[in-house]
Amino acid sequence: MATTTAEIEDEIIRMSMLNYERLPMLDVIFERFVLSFSSSLKSVTGSVLDVSLGEVEYLPFSEAMKSLPKHGLIAVAQADPWDDQFVLSLDSVFLFSALELMLGGQPSGRAKDAKHGFTTIERRMGEKLAELILADMAVGFRQICEVVFQVDRMESNPQFANIAQPSSPTVRVPLKINLDGHDGEVFLVLPYATLEPVRPLLTKIFFGERLGADNSWRAQLTQKIEGSSVVLTAQLHEVVLPMREILEWKVGDTFDLRIDDTHPVLVLCAGSPVLEGEMGKKQNGSVALRVTANLMGKDEWSNDVDAD
Hints:
- Helix content is 35%, strand content 26%.
- The strands form 2 sheets. Strands 1, 2, 3, 4, 5, 6 and 7 form a 7-stranded antiparallel beta sheet that branches.
- Strand 3 (73-80) and strand 4 (84-90) form a beta hairpin.
- Helix 2 crosses helix 5 and helix 4 crosses helix 5.
- The protein contains 10 helices and 11 strands.
- By secondary structure, the chain is of the alpha+beta class.
- The chain is elongated.
């Protein structure tokens, strides 16, 4: 069977998708965003709801736009100080369910009729919802940077929301929203060009909450560690003896350690050397140990933590 030019182009696009650089921190950011948005949406609708994050996908801009719900409302948003745009799509079920709840009614779960456009009130309410989403999205991004997202314009036709080249690499983030039993969807379409100012931070693999300005977890962890107790073992010396000699030992026998009074003592914690010291006696006759060396590399460790 002959291969058409269109099929070849589709295959090239599909293969290029496999080479898109993944942005692991986006998953962390949008998980935090979901928690914040759930609380904000509940406060404005006063209803029982559930917001869940779908699979973050990497695909060309044209494919991402084609996947958006039909007859929805699209917000073209501006990112400051990134000085670029991205797309936020609200499907009609979510839009009307939220609108009816915000106006004191009950959601009907109806979808927008394709034959009718959005009224001025519907567009304005859609813009309010978009602003709410963007504000919570900015909260999520505070883990890596300070940014402000604002609605630039509202569109009902996806063709008027083309903000990037069709083949431009893009991240599509889907949200599933259930309002009083009615399932709606929200989609974010983020071109790589928009995310370029923070791309190096987004490519980092997440190992606990180590980014951002919130260090309260570190203070609490430090307090817990400093208040904990550990067992230290003072090891005077190690000698290697034949097993036959050890088996012949009897109560009262002595053996030579082959050390003098100035021999250093090794202090172990959980089997690992941490300190070195010299033996001595206090005035009351108790055995004491004066620390002469730090074997933990504490200074280097502290510098690494502070630099983190």
